[in-house]
């Protein structure tokens, strides 16, 4: 099969993304103190093979080399996160040495002609704040806005794109309900409180940044899914899809873009106390106008409702593909991230899967972008950026450390074509940041899952661009997806 090159709109922003805890290492350097991920990684069974982020990709000591690598890959933008625990180790007091690391990184990026795209929170809450209740505690939202102000004071003259949170769904529901991410709590009410306080923290931070810097570009990144009923004719399956859409997508989208939690979601979670944590004025703060929406897309879901009888014996309310860590920290019974799933669960569709077991569903991305354009970002008049999309595969390096990852290359190719289709459909998508620049610490999977465009040899810290990375460098340089002569997903030779 051959396909023709596919050009993207002029000025389309090509880049790659990382996150502080996943790449930096230097966990005990320069005044940094523990984040909840340092603590969680010490819990037996929490992370595969007891891996942790102590060293990771040692990016803290290799940022110059990594910026040069990005430049060699023609990247126009780099999305990174700042570590709250490095910059304000107790959550409250600025640490100049920690902040200086990011100041230097930003200078290096700008010198290389790469736009810095800063995310304030990619899951590494200072442990000191978790000790006070974490995101279930309202004060964390206020402290987050204070942290945003400190970072802006230091970097606002050079960083023009600021996103507040990465994936509040994961932070709240994998962290506080499923317990498979830090802080490893399994408390449905705390998870809902965390979701609200994350949104509130976002809103308060946006107000703070806007006040200081009316010209800055401000946004948030959500991980969104495409929930389809397994059987459109089945009322149960349609209800399952509605619930998961509510608890995954609309719980964040509706407050951000419509200033209200969806009524059906409020009914689903009645009794879990969400109403008690929402104060007067919160929703107005959360709905502060934004300049962009960041979308992280990995896969959709085909949902069914377990028959009532089967539910007794089955795993409780599990949506498998979205929470497939299979890690059961500290030997507790598995918990679902969905606090009111009512038997909803995900059915495999027989699509190809990545190393994470996630189904490869590029057309889901096209539908998601169209939905956002029609229902949320279009009416708000703001553009969408893909802030993450990518795949883990069981890479095999040759003797020189080169990985001929035709599977990952095919994943990017297919998803970029879906983005291009969505643009043709009318979605205002302005850029694409691949996940991830480097192989890195993949949370509860440790170093076993590799998402990088660039291979990292964790013994030598050598970086070697994979076939997908070399391909992506061409995409970024030409503003087009090249034509293809082989079907990459079929595996085979790729030539
Ligand atoms: C995102 N899920 O995490 C994160 O933003 C990245 O840090 C991470 O490395 C990447 O995707 C790959 O996992 C997710 O269970 C983790 O649906 C879990 C889910 C989704 C996204």
From TrEMBL:
PANTHER family registered for this protein in UniProt: GLYCOSYL HYDROLASE, LP05116P
Active site: 388 (nucleophile)
GO biological process, one term: carbohydrate catabolic process
Family, similarity comment: Belongs to the glycosyl hydrolase 1 family.
Pfam families named in the record: Glyco_hydro_1
Designated name of the protein: beta-glucosidase
Entry's EC annotation: 3.2.1.21
Region (Disordered): 308-338
Enzyme class label: hydrolase
Molecular function terms from GO: beta-glucosidase activity
Keyword annotations: Glycosidase, Hydrolase
Gene Ontology cellular-component terms listed: cytosol
Compositionally skewed regions (Low complexity) per UniProt: 308-326
InterPro entries xref list: GH (IPR017853), GH_1_N_CS (IPR033132), Glyco_hydro_1 (IPR001360), Glyco_hydro_1_AS (IPR018120)
PROSITE patterns according to UniProt: GLYCOSYL_HYDROL_F1_1, GLYCOSYL_HYDROL_F1_2
